[in-house]
Amino acid sequence: MNEIKPPANAASKVPTWHFTMMRDSARNAAIEAAIASSNVAGKTVIEIGTGAGLPAMLFAKYGARKVFTCEMDERIADVAREIVRTNNLQDRIAVIAKSSRQAILDGDFPSGPDIIFTETLDAGVVGEGYEAIAEDIRQIANPSTVVMPDRVQQFGFLCTDLQAYEKNAVFNQCGFDLSGFNLFAERSYFSVSQKLHDPVSLSPTVLFRNYEYLNPNALEPVEHQVIAHSSGLCHGMTSYFDAHFGRFLVSSRDRKSHWPTAFHPLREPVPVESGRHYRLIGEKTGLIDLVSI
User: Fold this and answer.
1) What is the rounded CA–CA span in Å between residue 228 and residue 148?
2) pLDDT, position 1
3) Beta bridge partners of 157
4) pLDDT value at position 254?
5) Sheet containing 44-48: order of strands
6) Using CB atoms within 10 A of its CB, is residue 272 exposed (0-12), middle (13-18) or buried (19+)?
7) What is the location of CATH 3.40.50.150 in the chain?
8) Would you state the pLDDT for residue 112?
9) pLDDT at residue 210, rounded to an integer
10) At what angle do helices 54-61 and 74-86 cross, to 10 degrees?
């Protein structure tokens, strides 16, 4: 086996979630099954977000003629290029050390590829640049291009979750009012470990948003009517997602998933009553608001 040497610019650390992602066997199996069932033989593929190169190599394994894959972190792109070479796939996989936007501007991608693949998702779906990547996909796709995943569904429920809420707020400490620091609190969402605590559900789970890369209106504000099934102090919404790669699912709902759930805090906790109707409003950033009806 060829030795892969660290790139010269590897001094700063790559986030550890890359490793947990690459060891997520359920995710990897679903992606491989989706690629294997997609008749990729002889096809041209563009991937956005190379990582270690696993999806690109899977496309090559199942017969893709050429895979163009881009990675904006040059350190990761350099190592992915070596991994591809170690696996003797350098003639069929081109690793481009640029963002998808820059690769398009520089003419590095073929127009109208057969397949576009991306798995640039965070706990709340949009945090890894969903909107910009969707714009790029629409720019390079043609009517027959297959996009994987074809849709991402985000589900959410109102919850009592003081532990999550307190990760994002501070009040009185040592006799002093520190609440002014809440000016810097996260207003959209942040990750919460599923293994450390359980939110208390106050409402049924709703399909909060459908994301489709080819739909320019996918990030329009959404509004849902929900009926609280329990009374309590609502701190926000817990959400998870299902990414559909054809018949195969990559999901953050499983506690064994490397993705945590997302917690969307309300600006202020809201008391809710069992049986009452509420309007749940969601913005494209993940910011939510809750209004009694």
Assistant:
1) 35
2) 47
3) 238
4) 87
5) 93-96, 66-70, 44-48, 115-118, 146-148
6) buried
7) 17-119
8) 94
9) 97
10) 30
Residues with Cβ within 8 Å of 217's Cβ and at least 6 positions away in sequence, in order, are none
Closest of 138, 48, 152 to residue 100, by C-alpha: 48
Secondary structure string (H, E, C) spanning the chain: CCCCCCCCCCCCCCCCHHHHHHCCHHHHHHHHHHHHCCCCCCCEEEEECCCCCHHHHHHHHCCCCEEEEECCCHHHHHHHHHHHHHCCCCCCEEEECCCHHHHHHCCCCCCCCCEEEECCCCCCCHHHCHHHHHHHHHHHCCCCCEEECCEEEEEEEEEECHHHHHCCCCCEECCEECHHHHHHCCCCCEEECCCCCCCEECCCCEEEEEECCCCCCCCCCEEEEEECCCCEEEEEEEEEEEEEECCEEEECCCCCCCCCEEEEEEEEEEEECCCCEEEEEECCCCCEEEEEC
Chunk the chain into consecutive blocks of 10 residues (it has 293) and report each block's average pLDDT, rounded to whole numbers: 53 82 94 96 98 97 98 96 98 98 97 96 95 97 97 98 94 95 95 88 98 96 97 98 95 92 96 98 96 95
Burial class for 212, CB neighbours closer than 10 Å (0-12, 13-18, 19+): middle
Of 156, 154, 182, nearest to 167 by C-alpha is 182
CATH superfamily for domain 152-292: Hnrnp arginine n-methyltransferase1 (2.70.160.11)
Classify domain 17-119 at the CATH topology level.
Rossmann fold (3.40.50)
Report pLDDT for 198: 85
**Quick one: tokens of 80?**
């992915």
